[in-house]
Amino acid sequence: xxxxxLQSGRIDDALAIxxxxxxxxxxxxxxxxxxxxxxxxxxxxxxxxxxxxxxxxLAPNNATYHLWLGRAxxxxxxxxxxxxxxxxxxxxxxxxxxxxxxxxDDVDARTDLAEFxxxxxxxxxxxxxxxxxxxxxxxxxxxxxxxWIRARLAEKDKRYDIAEAxxxxxxxxxxxxxxxxxxxxxxYRRRDRLPEMEQAVKLAR
Length: 205
Prior knowledge:
The chain is mainly α. It has twelve helices and no strands. Helix 5 packs antiparallel against helix 6. The relative contact order is 0.06.
């Protein structure tokens, strides 16, 4: 399927299938979402947004489509001027919040929303208390992710001992999942603790 091809990195093959689907059925919301995701991987942010907006317009109650549109807005914001970035950040927040409202059980959506709240200034809706709210919301569903959010919060506040402990708690609660080891390795890199970073990378499996 096009989604399997995307996940395996075969973007050109996925695009060929997606474009055939859209040509035969112009109101295929899933195809437009997949098209948005393909352009997202290719760093074609304008095309990703355009296709994502089409998917959302066709299926406004699909939480996943709102999540991916929010991600596309976020990627474009990273490469935009300050004024444009602020506008795009607001759109990203709206899409993430809408996704969570539609499906509060989606840990990925809550994680992306929490990261937005941590990184974004208050003028565009950021807030550490809001991020903590997302940590509490996912705690019962995925305690490792709750620890990861709190690690990011602590690191943002320069409470590095607490951040390290939370990253390690995320590893433990996830059963040594590789992405959590790599999060700890990234933390060590940012703290210039390179031997510990190398050890964490080795333990990621």
